[in-house]
Amino acid sequence: MVRSVLDSGDLHDLALWAPRALEEPGAPRAPPPEEIVVRFLGFLAERGGKATVAALARRLDEPSHRVIGRVAAFQRLLNIEGYPILSRDEESGTVELNESLLREQFELR
User: Fold this and answer.
1) Cα 67 off chain centre by
2) Which residue range forms the structural domain that includes residue 83?
């Protein structure tokens, strides 16, 4: 059985790492709150790495347009060195988290 990010403190580690990563050029302007990082990535991990923008909006209790902005910010944060860790398909309205790339890129167990 493949271990999910949710089985450890990895999401919290990423949430704590995020503000430091934001100091890099091209990073989003303001750090996402730890709770949002955990809820956003956790929800995707719970759903096998894929969810619609509408489902994420319901989980985060935010309007869809705001979730789209969060996806873009998380893409700038996570998709370093050109690896597509987080992607959004505009046509289908889905967001996908590549957990194996996330683990590899951020040296998670």
Assistant:
1) 11
2) 5-105
Q: Output phi, psi for 106, to 5 deg.
A: -105, 15
The tens place of each residue's pLDDT in the chain, 109 residues long, gives 234 444 446 655 665 555 445 455 555 566 677 788 888 988 998 899 999 999 999 999 999 999 999 999 888 888 888 889 999 999 999 999 998 888 888 777 6
First to last CA, the chain: 14
Bridge-based pairing of strands 50-52 and 94-97 is antiparallel
Q: How far apart are CA 104 and CA 73, in angstroms?
A: 20
Beta carbons of 77 and 21 less than 8 angstroms apart: yes
Domain count, the chain: 1
Residue 20 identity = R
Task: Indicate which CATH number applies to the domain containing 61.
Answer: 1.10.10
Q: Which two tokens stand for residue 71?
A: 């996806």
Q: What is the strand order of the sheet 50-52 is part of?
A: 50-52, 94-97, 86-89
